[in-house]
Amino acid sequence: MLRERGGHSRAWWPWRPCASTPPELAQKVLESIKQTEETCAGDPVGGECATSWDKVEELIVAASHVRGRKKDSDPLEEYCKDNPETNECRTYED
To answer: Using DSSP, how many helices (H) and how many strands (E) does the chain show?
Structure first.
């Protein structure tokens, strides 16, 4: 489904969080979308509606950046940060 606001398409709608999105950020995005829909119910092309959608977009971009940073991390490195004493995380000197 495509949403329109002042000539701008909402191709990302409906937004769904993925597993790598922190739960608190995902909840914030979903709440912001709901609040924006309520704000835009009476005047879908007004300034208040546009501002509200801009805030939603900023949150979605933030969620995307968080997911991107998580993709760059190595799962073993993350595990070893939390469990340096395990066999998988031992380092040996020559």
So the answer is: 3, 2
